[in-house]
Structure prediction request, 454 residues.
Amino acid sequence: MGTSITSLRKDALHIFQAGIDAANPYQAVKNCITVAENHFELALDLSSDSKIRYGRWPKIHIFAFGKAACSMAKAAEEVIPKHRLANIPIAITNYENVATLKNIEVIGAGHPLPDISGQQAAVLLTERLIDAKNDELVLILISGGGSALIPYPSPGLTLNDKIVTTDLLLASGANIKQTNCVRKHLSRTKGGQLALLAAPADIHTLILSDVIGDELSTIASGPTVPDNTSYADAIAILKDKNIWNKVPLNIHLLLEKGTLGQVKETAKSNDPCFKNASHTLIGSNSICLNSIIKAAKNLGYETDMFSSSVCGEARDEAERLVLHTKKRVENGLAEPLAILSGGESTVTIRGTGIGGRNQEMALAFAIAAEKYQLKGKWTFLSGGTDGRDGPTNAAGGMVDPETMTRIKKARANPLNRLNNNDSYSALKKSEDLVITGATGTNVADLQIILIQPE
Prediction:
């Protein structure tokens, strides 16, 4: 391992890629499904060989939605015998991850904002679900982005109502749990409602988690698991984020009717539809974190886990990381150090620029490193495992001690760019964007700081 900044940047990219590889959805699905001589076996826990669901289902329906839908559907379709498939599997994914697959109907849809293609796909999905018989299995394959990709507005709402509300939530700094609580109560598919539609058929869900803590009711807005949130909770979130008076009138009317019991709630844990429902968590941010720890150690770094649940404002988290790193440096380093974290930060949009939470965190880290005079040779990478950070073509950003100089030489003011939420243009000027292309998976974000001892 070299000691130059270039070597550190190369190592950071290698470690980041190891994290992405650990969330390979294709292999994870194959690890979960076993076809025996006269029955199927579904692994309920990949860490335990004894937790298995057995079934003799004559027909199996496959529905996948999310950024990893294509690879997950492909894996399931390859494992399950053709004569056992009830119909052609459906995979609904964002446009960047659309792939041509034999024997699978692939539908591209909008993300992070829903669109009409997603709504049409959701309608098709629900129509197929209703056809499932009581001795059959509905196999649902969920990955990150699933909430936006199957928008099916509640009666009385338009798709535009949902788009406007989703846009306001994303811009308000609402976290994924808050955003999805609202989404559940504006939808016919979320909050356990796909399980309602599939009943009386058996249902099993394979889940690739993009939510820190892996709360199943939050991942893709929990379409196949019970929901313990309410219409009142959704209203409280919109008011807390100061957007209640900005969302469309139709949203007001629906949520208020819901609080009065005039509109049916999402599916709760005592609903009979969950009697024959089960799930398997096949990938998560924590699995990726374990992988990057191993990769960093293999490159000769001592490792320090800063946080496995980063969730605050991106610029605030960046400052916390800088202060933590500075303290480690000042205490003396005997060997190269990797400070690692994972999670999903938020950004409150106040400006008119372009960027994403990872790029904003990277730019904020470079600014804070200069402010607090972080010494030594270091590099910091923050990236989304899906390869797309915000509405940009970058996965995130990677900065070093010379980033601020490069931005200023390009006649840009780093702090002004940060305050305008314009991290993409700043990092493009300094050639610090991390561009991987769509990865076909999504298990939130990873942060990597590498430091060489003086």
Q: What stands out?
A: The chain has a mean pLDDT of 95. The chain is about 40% helix and 20% strand. Residues 5-22 form the longest helix (18 residues). The two ends are 15 Å apart (CA to CA).
